[in-house]
Specification:
Number of domains: 1
Number of helices: 2
Mean pLDDT: 82
Order of helices and strands: EEEEHEH
Number of strands: 5
Low-confidence stretches: none
Largest sheet: 5 strands, mixed
Strand content: 15-25%
C-alpha cells in the first residue's frame, strides 16, 4: 500500500469528525488502530480531545498524546517509506504551529 502522507486531526474537529481514522490516540496516550483503511492515500491519526489552542496551554496528558503521535508518525513513515514531514492538519493556527515546530 502506498501512502502520500498523514492527516492529523482531533476528535473535536467538526470538519473531519465522523469520517474515521486509521489510528486513534486516546487521552491516556493509548493507541488504537482501526480494522479498516480510512483513506487509500493518507494515514489518518485522530487525537482524542480539543487541541485548538496554544501549545503552552496544553496539559501534560495532551503533550503526551502529541509525543505518542510523533513516535507513531516516525514509525509509520519508516514502514511505508514516506516523509514524516508530510502532515496535513485540520486548519487551525495553533495546530499548525505545533506540528511545524514553532511552539516546541
Amino acid at each position: 500500500m502506498t501512502f502520500e502522507g498523514f492527516i492529523i486531526h482531533h476528535s473535536a474537529c467538526p470538519s473531519i469528525n465522523g469520517k474515521g481514522y486509521d489510528f486513534w490516540i486516546g487521552e491516556d496516550a493509548s493507541v488504537v488502530s482501526s480494522p479498516y483503511v480510512t483513506d487509500p492515500s493518507h494515514i489518518h491519526i485522530c487525537l482524542q480531545g480539543d487541541f485548538n489552542r496554544e501549545y503552552t496551554l496544553f496539559r501534560a496528558a495532551e503533550k503526551q498524546q502529541l509525543f505518542v503521535a510523533s513516535k507513531l508518525i516516525v514509525e509509520l513513515a519508516r514502514r511505508y517509506n514516506i516523509s514524516p514531514s508530510i502532515c496535513f492538519l485540520t486548519p487551525t493556527p495553533a495546530q499548525e504551529r505545533i506540528f511545524h515546530g514553532t511552539n516546541l
